[in-house]
Amino acid sequence: MAEAAVTYVLGKIDTLLNKAHELKDWRRQFEQMRQELRLIHALLRDADSKHNRNELVTEWLNQVREIANKIASVIDTFRVEIEGNWIRKKTPSVKRNYKTYKRGLHDMLEDIIQQLNRLYQRRTDLGIKDLGALDDVDDPEPSDKVDDPEVVGLEDDKGKIIEQLLDRKISRRMVLSIVGTGGLGKTTLAQEIYKRLAAIRLQRLD
């Protein structure tokens, strides 16, 4: 559902803004993104009540859900990048990749903000009214818990990816992409890998 996706990603943005110390030039963009999402979130109650009678509203809700999922993936990648500073200091090739990532992130965030604004502006044409935000919009994102059925069946994939990322025989750090159609659990898998690598890092620092 679009409501669940938007609520979830709003929590992720709040957590990012509260905890990330390396947002720098991107903080304004993430704050603007949050504002656009909150405006859209206030429309979802009315949109949900109309989508069975209006295919255009149904498509609009699908687009809202898709952009929310995209933002979640962008945030997951961003977290990995800023938390990966300990790797970048030691690996020149990864440092170069990070610079390329930084250059592209600004344009990516601006594009997302524009997409959100266009979705919000369509409310008048679709007859969607602002009925107010839903109750759980300000709930923070759970820090360690993943209540997602998509995590089931991903253990093998998670183990293989972590094994490759930690393989000391690989002299040049690779970039692994998680690809697939929507709903397969790509974002969940990335979250689980990130948490596991963070735990391993802490163990090595002890």
UniProtKB/TrEMBL annotation:
Presence of the UniProt keyword Nucleotide-binding in the record: yes
Domain NB-ARC, first and last residues per copy: 155-200
InterPro entries according to UniProt: NB-ARC, P-loop_NTPase, RX-like_CC, Rx_N
Keywords assigned by UniProt, alphabetized: Leucine-rich repeat, Nucleotide-binding, Plant defense, Repeat
Domain Disease resistance N-terminal: 5-84
Entry GO MF terms: ADP binding
GO biological process: defense response
Entry-linked PANTHER family: DISEASE RESISTANCE PROTEIN RGA2-LIKE (PTHR19338:SF73), TRANSLOCASE OF INNER MITOCHONDRIAL MEMBRANE 13 HOMOLOG (PTHR19338)
Protein name: Putative disease resistance RPP13-like protein 3
